[in-house]
Design a protein that fits this description.
This protein is α/β, with parallel strands linked by helices. Helices cover about 50% and strands about 15% of the residues. It starts with 8 loop residues before the first helix and ends with a strand. The structure holds NADP nicotinamide-adenine-dinucleotide phosphate.
Length: about 150
């Protein structure tokens, strides 16, 4: 799940559902959330809730947060996605779903691009092939977006 800013809204529900299942003793699949905001102290939405979900789900829940205005350089969700390239590629090969929500003008396009690059690098294929894999993921609904601008 990739949901910077207000794009995190639907994923809060996804994670809440899995946290509830985990609390009931059920096994839940690996759940990774990439969130981005300006500063931890300003707009890190539902910060306390995520901590609770981590307690509920243990290792099944991972959250990676990109703070864009805390240091000298902008850090965005796509940078965090790149850092997790090995695991993302592994999960996609196991047929994990990839969800993106938020800004369509820049973020969603850049996330699409970075995913193609990750697939190409990790699978040792040309970048054009990585792009094709992402297109095929979209066609089969493995890659789903709810984006606006
Ligand atoms: N006044 C405020 O304090 C405040 C706070 C939050 C949101 N807002 C406004 O509320 C509206 C919606 O906000 P939102 O929370 O959905 O989004 P947002 O706060 O505008 O953006 C969420 C995060 O995405 C980052 N971002 C910007 N361009 C990106 C890109 N190309 N790829 C990946 N990440 C990117 C932003 O970084 P950067 O913005 O640092 O580039 C920010 O860290 C916007 O109009 C926003 O301006 C205002």
């Amino acid at each position: 799940m990739v949901g910077p800013g207000t794009g995190v809204a639907p994923f809060r529900g996804f994670v809440q559902e899995r946290a509830a299942l985990a609390r009931d003793g059920q096994t839940v699949g690996k759940t990774i959330l990439f969130f981005g905001c300006r500063k931890a102290a300003e707009d890190f939405m539902y910060q306390d809730e995520w901590e609770q979900y981590k307690k509920d789900m243990g290792d099944a829940f991972e959250m990676h947060v990109a703070f864009s205005r805390e240091g000298p350089n902008k850090v965005y969700v796509q940078h965090k996605i790149k850092e997790q390239a090995v695991e993302i590629n592994k999960l996609l090969q196991e047929k994990a779903f990839f969800y993106v929500c938020g800004d369509a003008a820049n973020m969603a396009r850049e996330v699409n691009t970075i995913l193609g690059q990750i697939i190409a690098e990790q699978r040792g294929v040309p970048e054009s092939k990585g792009e094709e894999v992402v297109k095929a993921m979209r066609a089969s609904n493995q890659y789903q977006e709810d984006v606006w601008s």
